[in-house]
Amino acid sequence: xxxxxxxxxxxxxxxxxxxxxxxxxxxxxxxxxxxxxxxxxxxxxxxxxxxxxxxxxxxxxxxxxxxxxxxxxxxxxxxxxxxxxxxxxxxxxxxxxxxxxxxxxxxxxxxxxxxxxxxxxxxxxxxxxxxxxxxxxxxxxxxxxxxxxxxxxxxxxxxxxxxxxxxxxxxxxxxxxxxxxxxxxxxxxxxxxxxxxxxxxxxxxxxx
Length: 208
Ligand code: UDP
Ligand code: MG
Known about the structure:
Blueprint: H1 4-18, E1 22-28, H2 34-45, E2 48-51, H3 52-61, H4 67-75, H5 82-95, E3 100-104, H6 110-120, E4 126-131, H7 134-143, H8 153-176, E5 180-184, H9 189-200
Parallel strand pairs: 1-3, 1-4, 2-3, 4-5
Magnesium ion binds near residues 34, 51, 53 and 105.
């Protein structure tokens, strides 16, 4: 019979690492186009899209005991404790038969990044970074009307601050490892996707 430690280990990663998963982190500020482009990548390259924000919003809706805490943090633009987000991501990967995942909007700070790596043993293949001006991101967030409680100017400002202070350092960390594929995300959706495609198409196929 397994001990509590063994059980925790199984849940925490061994079954995931055995699967040899390919994970791409999709990062960029709020409104930089992560979700939109992930939908295109899924369609063309067979990845499964996991949006950390969507998983957290689903957790609120499901009436989970963490729901109120998550809802309050999202409303303040704060980063939900790693433990909560990582469990949701792990579960989603375990429940899906695919072996290629786009993880969108995570990791958002150094602690997220380190905790995910140590808990799952997964290191991202690369990081797709949507580089967008704050002016453009603000315009998109205020214009998108998805009924999100955090798409108001007060929360948007807070999200920008958290992004600059906590999330950009994560991108810089991966850049120092040569893992960042930077995309100019200010352009129209189709043009941005052309640049994204060039990242996902293996280099030997690009010449034709
Ligand atoms: N969030 C979080 N951890 C994550 C992803 C999202 O705490 O790993 C919270 C955070 O409060 C964030 C909100 O969910 O501001 C919305 O995130 P989402 O990625 O959906 O928004 P985006 O940045 O794409 O506009
Ligand atoms: Mg999103």
